[in-house]
Design a protein that fits this description.
mainly alpha
């Protein structure tokens, strides 16, 4: 957990590897894809399954959702 988050209780892993892959870079398709690919490092073993989806499925689709979220945020900000 980074210094900026010290003292706060977290119920989910912070996307530090994803953040590091984005900082200082333009938000082109290659950068977004590379950053989304880092989500597995952030999740580690924190993924759990339930009756709706297995842990392995959630870990597999996490980069897809992260990529979509970053692309949507970039578009809303007028950066894409």
């Amino acid at each position: 957990m980074g210094a900026a988050h010290a003292g706060k209780r977290q119920w989910f892993p912070l996307p530090e590897a994803v953040e590091k892959a984005l900082v200082g870079k333009g938000l082109d398709a290659a950068t977004i894809a590379a950053a989304a690919g880092q989500v597995g490092a952030d999740l580690g073993g924190e993924v759990s399954g339930d009756i709706f989806a297995s842990a392995s499925y959630r870990k597999a689709v996490a980069p897809v959702y992260v990529k979509r979220a970053i692309a949507a945020a970039a578009a809303r900000a007028g950066l894409a």
